[in-house]
C-alpha cells in the first residue's frame, strides 16, 4: 500500500489503530484486502493508507468526502461482518477516530 | 509504541504518512525517538501512535489539544532541524494532514 491521492481539503478521515492477535493470519489478510476493495467502490471514498509493524500494531487511515459516506460504509453489511470477526478474533484492542482534515502538506 | 490515551473529543490530530529511504537507519531511529520524547513535553500534547511496515511505509499520528499547540510544535527548533534532515535523507515522500477529531470509539 502507498499514499492516498486525496483532493485539496476539507475532507474526512477515519483513523483506525489496532493491535493484531496472532490468530487466523490467512483469514485476516483475505478479509483486509476484500475490505479495501469494497471500500474503494463506495460513494465518497477518496483513498486509504495502511501500515502494520512487526509487533502487530497497525494504523489504517481511510479518507472520505463526507460524514455521510463514512456512515454508509460503517453500515455496509460485509464491513459489519468483518468488524464482528475483528472484535472476536483478529484484534486484542483498537480505537477508531473520525476526523475532519482541514489542511495538508505534500512532498510528492 | 502503543495506543494514545486521548481524552474525549474534540481534539486535534496530525497524520504523518511517510516512505523511508534506506539511508541512515541509526540516525533516523535516534532522532525519531528524540522527537517523540520532545513532543511529549510540549504544551497540549495528548499522545502519539506510530507504525512502519517492512516496506518502509509509516504512519505516525500525534494528538494535540489545539491548533495552537500543533503550531508551536511545528515551529520548535529541534523539530524543524529534524524535518529538514527528513526531507533531505530519510523520506522519499511524505504527506502531513492536520485534522480535528470529532468522535472516537475505544475497545480498550
Automatic annotation (TrEMBL), chains A, B:
Any matching Pfam family: ABM
Boundaries of every ABM domain copy: 20-84
Domain of life: Bacteria
InterPro entries: ABM_dom, Dimeric_a/b-barrel, Jasmonate_Hydroxylase-like
Descriptive protein name: ABM domain-containing protein
